[in-house]
Amino acid sequence: MCGIIGYVGSKNNTELGIRALKRLEYRGYDSAGMAIIEESGLESVKVSGKVDKLRDKLKETDFKGTPTLFHSRWSTHGGPTRENAHPQFDCKGEVAVVHNGIIENFTKIKERLIEEGHKFSSETDTEVIAHLIEKFYDGDLEEAVRKAINLLEGAYGLAVISTKEPDKIIAAKMSSPVVVSVNEAGGFVSSDPAAIVEHSKNMIFLEDEEIAIVTEDGFRIKDRDQNVLEKEEVEIDWDLKEAQKSGYDHFMMKEMMEQPKSIKDSIRGRITDDGDVKLGGLDEISHELESLEKLTILACGTSHFASMVGKYLIEEISGIPVEVGLASEFRYRKRPYDKKEGFLFVSQSGETADTLKALEEVKKRHALTLGIVNVVGSSIARKTDGGVYNHAGPEIGVASTKAFTSQLSILTLLAVYLGRQRDLSKPESAKILTELEQLPKKVESILENREEIKEKAERYKDYEHFLFMGRRYNYPTAMEGALKLKEISYIHAEGYSAAEMKHGPIALIDEDFPTFAVCLQSSVYGKMISNVEEIRARKGPMIVLATEGDEDIKNHSDDVIEIPQTMEVLSPVLAVVPFQLFAYYMAVLKGFDPDKPRNLSKVVTVE
Ligand code: M6R
Questions:
Q1: Mutate to test the pocket of ligand 1, among 345, 346, 348 (most ligand atoms within 8 A of CB)
Q2: Could you read off the pLDDT of 324-359 as tens digits, one per residue?
Q3: How many other C-beta atoms can be found within 10 angstroms of the C-beta atom of residue 117?
Q4: Is the pLDDT of residue 527 over 60?
Q5: Fewer CB atoms inside 10 Å of the end CB: C or N, the chain?
Q6: pLDDT tens for residues 362-408?
Q7: Do domains 243-448 and 457-589 have the same CATH topology?
Q8: What does the pLDDT average to over 198-225?
Q9: 3-236 fold
């Protein structure tokens, strides 16, 4: 959740560090800090607040040294104060540590260190690491870091510098991501490739329990037994422009507007001329997929809602029974496994701790694992037996938008792929795929009408509660619409299956509780109209998402948003877009920054 950067080299370190940190700011942003080894010793600047505040403070300095560490923090232990900002230091101010993760046993370690005479100056769990390194340092920083992390329980991605060995950064990883890159500009460590992709697209991803020793012109990576490892570089297929706002006010708007392209990129080269699906990342496990009798999909947040749509898709198109679960809950279930059961993990970042832990749990049972992941080289992508990359480009806004529509597109491809291995005929498959290829144009036409959604946001901005409801394929869309609204505009929103309303939630409805109903031409159209009328009978204002040309729907609503016609199985890709835009405009109208919603972080690397 926090962003960590380490740099050793001769470039202008503070500007370089700030630029990298700005790209990580979305991960956590309640405080920020940096440390640098100058000729005079270890210097640091820390602020409570955003990275820009750190940048302003740095303008008052004239640092020239190296190596340097930067950090943007999403608080876990201790509030977002200057003292709790990272880096954290040892007693003598010689060791600096930046950390992403949670040290679960820090209280015990801290008590022991205090007994031994160490003086603490923050409430963070991280500070124990600096003091442990101080305690164990005996002329070898790498060894001191190794001894320190051997005592840690929990999750960490960390980078360490010390005045005793100022030519290097030591990085270590357990459950939280760390990448290393050494190129002409020098040696880099980061929690996210996006931060350093400006300098090189080639990255080394550390695995758990590995340690990296990074210098200006090289690196060594060792495993827990100190064996030096030969690790392959992963090429990141993003360019820097994709990680910038490119003239938009917010990343979220940019990413929503990119959806026609990201959907195209997700399906490009994966549909053959004769109506089949080609997914290179599944080639090696295609035989196992042929004999699959059950698929369980695990994910969190928006990726979980995409997975819920995936269940309908895969069951309908391929006939394979699908279970969908929250990765966080799955991990703690005592659940029997089916013999021919496969597991699919869906994650934009590929680093979500709950999803990663569920994957590790499944791997212990030797079940087949697949991933649908956007970030190339991320932990989930590396640890699954096979998978499909989204190729949606970097998603920076905390609210997931283009990743969702990309996930839906890939889940459609997967459903057809599995279907073709079974009873799905070529003409049926071609019909779905042809329509899938039409979606970018249709999404574009919704985005072109965004002013209309903005007007709706202006009209409804003073309401404090919203209901989103849909059925079948668009029940998850309703859940996603509600999540978007709550996470960036802090408005209470409920996402429900329209059918469930009368089992309780309809009691909430009155003239102050508007409903968004996904009421498209589909197998559940008639039932949706009944559910809409049940709400209207209780005076609930009704905004209906309807298929273009549906004149009758106006008799059942106060407001209508039209979207182009498509097949029901593909309709969530279109239906979600007005909900994304509505949430965005509501947030902006209320004066909130949709890219940086309070209390949230883009990548949830703690459980
Ligand atoms: O990176 P992941 O897809 O695994 O992330 C899962 C959720 O944390 C994420 O979708 C979250 O719910 C978003 N903020 C939703 O907009």
A1: 348
A2: 999 999 988 888 888 899 999 999 999 999 999 999
A3: 8
A4: yes
A5: C
A6: 999 999 999 999 998 889 999 999 999 999 998 989 999 999 999 99
A7: yes
A8: 94
A9: Glutamine Phosphoribosylpyrophosphate, subunit 1, domain 1 (3.60.20)
Ligand 1 pocket test, candidate residues 26, 297, 302, most atoms within 8 A of CB: 302
Strand partners, 214: 169, 219
* E strand or H helix that includes residue 68: strand 68-73
Banded model confidence at residue 235, pLDDT cuts 50, 70, 90: confident
Residue of 2, 46, 357, 402 marked catalytic: 2
For 243-448, which CATH class? Answer: alpha beta
Specify the residue with its C-alpha closest to ligand 1, atom 11.
301
Q: Which residues pair with 465 in a beta bridge?
A: 492
Residues touching ligand 1 (Cβ under 6 Å) are 300-303, 347-349, 352, 355, 398-400, 483, 487, 603-604
Contact 402, 581 (CB under 8 A): no
Q: Using the mean position of ligand 1's atoms as its centre, give its distance from the Cα of residue 346 in Å.
A: 10
- The token pair at 56 is 């302003």
Please state which architecture CATH assigns to domain 457-589: 3-Layer(aba) Sandwich (3.40)
Question: Atom 8, ligand 1: which residue's CA is nearest?
Answer: 301
Dist CA 559 CA 468 (whole Å): 14
pTM, rounded to two decimals? 0.81
Query: Domain-by-domain residue ranges, the chain?
Result: 3-236, 243-448, 457-589
Counting from 1 in the atom list of ligand 1, the atom nearest the Cα of 603 is 1
Report d(CA 270, CA 391) in Å as an integer. Answer: 12
Establish whether 91 is a catalytic residue. Answer: no
